[in-house]
C-alpha cells in the first residue's frame, strides 16, 4: 500500500506549510501528493507550484471538479502539467453536487450524472490519445458544438501539443454504487471520500470487477496524538460540514453514503441540526465510531494496529491529510 499526502483545498488563504509538507513527504518516500478545489482556490495551480519544488513525487488532483472546466480545458491542464513535471501527473476528477455545480459554477447539474461523467472521461481520453480530432455527439458534451445557438462553423480539432503520455492516469471521485461500478470500467482508479476498513462490504458489489493495476485511493485524516477525542475533532468538523451542509435535506450524496455505511439515523440528525443553524451541535452529533473508522488518529502503536486493517482490503494508495511533520514521519516508518 503506497502512501500519498492529501493537502485538500485552501481555506481563507494559502497554507504556508503545504509546500514544506510536500517536500518532506517526497523525502520520506511518499508516492504522491494531491490537491483539491471547492469554491475558492483551484486544484492545478498549487500542484504546479509543488511540481516546481519537487522532483520525484507523483502529482494528483483529488479532485478537480468537472463543472469548473470543459473536458478539453481539463485535458489541457493535465497534459501541460504532465510535461512540466516530467510525467508525474495524475488526473482525479469529481462531478461534485447540485449545490456547488449550480450555486458556484452557474450551470445545471446533469440529469444523468453517469452519462455526463462517461462523456467527460471520453473527451479527456481522446485528447490524451491524440489519435485524431476530438469528436463526440454526446448528451452533455458535444464536439464540435452542435447546439441550436451555435454558428455551425465548429470543426473537430486535436491538441496542438502532443501529450507526454497517452495513458496518463485518470481517477474518479464517486460515491453512489452505480457510479463506483462505472468508475472501475472507465477510469484507472477510484478516490473514495469515506473509507472504513471495517465496512468494505458496502462497496463489495461495486468493486466486483476490479482489474489489475486499478487504484483504490481513499483519503484519511491522520494525526499522531495522545488524546484520541481531541484528534478526532477535525474529522468530526469535516463530517458535520459535508453531511450537514453539502447538499439539501432531500438530496445529499455524502449523507446518503454515511447512511449506506450503517449510520442512517445519525446522518439524518446531523443534517437536521446543521440546516437548523445549530452547527456546533451537528459536529458533536457525528458518532466517534464513524469518525474513528475513517481516520488514523492516536498514539503510534494504535495507528500501527489500525493501519494493518487498511492493508487487508483493496486499498492500493492511502492518501493522508497529515497536519504535522511528526505524523508524516511516523506513517512513513509504519508503512515501510
TrEMBL record:
The keyword Oxidoreductase is assigned to this record: yes
The organism's place on the tree of life at top rank: Bacteria
The UniProt record lists the keyword Zinc-finger: no
Family annotation (SUPFAM superfamilies): Bacterial luciferase-like
Record's keyword terms, sorted: Oxidoreductase
Domain Luciferase-like as annotated: residue spans: 18-313
Protein name per its UniProtKB record: LLM class F420-dependent oxidoreductase
Originating species: Streptomyces peucetius
